[in-house]
Amino acid sequence: MDEAYRIEDPAIVEFSDIHLAVVRETVGFAEIPGLYDRAYPMLFSTLAAAGTAPAAAPMGVVHGGAGEALDLSVAVPLATGYVAGPGAPAEVTAETIPGGRAARLLVRGDYSGIAAGYERLHAWLAELGERPDGLAWEQYLTEPEPGGDPAGNETLIAVRLRDPDGAAVSGAVPR
């Protein structure tokens, strides 16, 4: 394993609805950093202006599979659904990830380990006979600092699972 990151053991968990304020776009891989750099300040300033505090660490939510582009929601979890206030940017909208089952694991260290984390998670799920439902997310538990040590990064990655009967769960839905 690369020394720049460590991947913890995966687990299957039950989770409740996750309410989000998001900026959602379809972007190529090279455009992802720019989207994050633009979306998070917009999200946090919009929420601050509305007097709404985040309920958990920020996230990135991938809708569907990875191709040449990603359908990506840059997201901030909230205690309740986001409601746009006066003057809120139109790019900030609401989504809810319906509760259910997810497989997740923690990647510690450099973000270069996230892809390997997803590979490990998907291989583990295949061994168990579990099937992903097309929705995955990363939760950035630590905030990277310019010039900081990436070894301190902690990213929780998760893949939502189909119901035990194999039925697909509906996707993250705008509220």
Q: How would you describe what is shown here?
A:
The protein is an alpha+beta fold. The chain has two helices and ten strands. It has helices at residues 32-49, 114-128; strands spanning 5-7, 11-15, 18-28, 59-63, 69-78, 93-97, 100-109, 132-140, 154-161, 173-174. Strands 1, 2, 3, 4, 5, 6, 7, 8, 9 and 10 form a ten-stranded antiparallel beta sheet that branches. The longest helix is centred in the N-terminal third of the chain and has 18 residues, at 32-49. It is globular and about 50 Å long. The mean pLDDT is 90.
Keywords:
ten-stranded antiparallel sheet, single chain, 39% strand, 175 residues, globular, alpha+beta
What level of helicity do the residues show?
Answer: 10-25%
Radius of gyration (Å): 16 Å
Determine the structural class based on helices, strands and strand pairing.
alpha+beta
- DSSP, total strands: 10
Order of helices and strands: EEEHEEEEHEEE
Low-confidence stretches: none
On the 0 to 100 scale, the average pLDDT is: 90
In angstroms, what separates the terminal alpha carbons? Answer: 41 Å
